[in-house]
Design a protein that fits this description.
Blueprint (H helix, E strand, L loop, with lengths): L4 E2 H6 L5 E5 L7 E2 L4 E2 L17 E4 L1 H9 L1 H13 L4 E4 L7 H9 L4 E4 L3 H15 L3 E11 L2 E6 L6 H10 L3 E13 L2 E6 L6 E4 L3 E4 H5 L8 E2 L2 E7 L14 E5 L2 E10 L5 H16 L4 H20 L1
Parallel strand pairs: 4-5, 5-6, 6-7, 9-15, 15-17
Antiparallel strand pairs: 1-3, 2-7, 8-9, 8-10, 10-11, 11-14, 12-13, 16-17
Helix pairs in contact: 2-3, 3-4, 6-8
Length: about 300
């Protein structure tokens, strides 16, 4: 899912402390890269380091330079605007030079003023943009925090995902989201959160819509979780072969990140919540370098080798 930020959205972020002073007609300009830029040598007319569609930040040093170097001011401002930034932000509530206001207005480049000091503004806006612009996708399923492991249950409608999740909540595990899950890539990790209207509600056939937070308390839910395992639930099919040894790991690639995947067949008598809890415990062991199935295979190989030596 591609995404972008409009400059107008920056005005809605109260923690950024920004107001628009010129270029209002450009508030629909898109920010497509979650990195800010500072002008540096561009103020002297050297444009090489500037890129289009980014947030251009001016601090006290840059404003002092523009105010104190009148002969070079026009060239510096022309260079900034010609780079086609998404917007220009002046920090510390400093007054932008009149020439910068006029150029921003003439080219519909939003000129914003932030009350934050430069370092605080850069930290706040970079963190927010990185989250908003991260590659993302949406999946139908239920995301749970089971023993600290992010488990995404997927499968066709009516297979029992929500009922299994409810069983896990009763056991003390935490619901992140039901029905529609938005997955974002942050570096080499995937994180998920509920994306639909349900929030921390669940739809249980026969019961209707229930509020997990109200029923079980704040400790039974969480807003987001790193995704560690995908569990696909499907009806038992005797004609299919199922993994009975677990020597080799199966992965599914989401947003170019491989995620461990398990396929659990559903049939009467199988407690799926228990199996998922055990799968989470097993994943914790693997994270510590302990692979139970492979360790068993190695022990078996050693025992067989010892028997052959004894026969010889």
């Amino acid at each position: 899912m591609s995404t972008q930020i409009t400059v107008g959205e920056l005005l809605e972020r109260g923690e950024l402390g920004v107001t628009v002073v010129a270029g209002v007609d450009g508030l629909e300009r898109a920010v497509t890269v979650p990195r800010i830029q500072k002008p540096g040598l561009a103020l002297t007319g050297w444009p090489e380091q500037l890129h289009a569609n980014r947030v251009l930040v001016l601090g006290g040093t840059e404003i002092d330079y523009l105010n104190d170097h009148e002969p070079a001011r026009k060239l510096g401002i022309e260079t900034l605007i010609a780079s086609e930034p998404a917007c220009v932000v002046v920090c510390r509530s400093l007054a932008p030079p009149d020439e910068l206001r006029a150029a921003a207005e003439a080219h519909d480049v939003p000129l914003l003023v932030s009350s934050l000091v430069t370092a605080d503004f850069i930290a706040a806006v970079t963190t927010w943009m990185a989250e908003r612009l991260a590659p993302s996708t949406e999946l139908h399923g239920v995301l749970m925090d089971v023993l600290g492991i992010g488990v995404l249950m997927v499968g066709k409608s009516g297979i029992g995902k929500s009922e299994t999740a409810l069983d896990l909540v009763v056991r003390g595990h935490r619901l992140v989201g039901d029905d529609v899950i938005r997955i974002r890539r942050q570096g080499k990790q995937l994180s998920g959160r509920g994306a639909g209207l349900l929030g921390h509600h669940m739809e249980i056939r026969g019961l209707g819509i229930i509020n997990i937070k109200d029923l079980f308390g704040i400790s039974a839910v969480r807003e987001a979780k790193v995704l560690d395992v995908i569990v696909e639930l499907h009806e038992w099919d005797a004609s299919q072969e199922y993994d009975r040894l677990g020597f080799d790991e199966v992965t599914e690639t989401l947003l170019d990140v491989p995620v461990t995947k398990l396929r659990l067949p559903i049939r009467p008598g199988r407690n799926i919540a228990t199996l998922i809890e055990v799968a989470a415990r097993n994943q914790l062991l693997k994270a510590q370098g302990i692979h139970s199935a492979r360790a068993f295979r190695e022990s078996l190989n050693r025992a067989m080798a010892a028997e052959m030596d004894a026969v010889e």
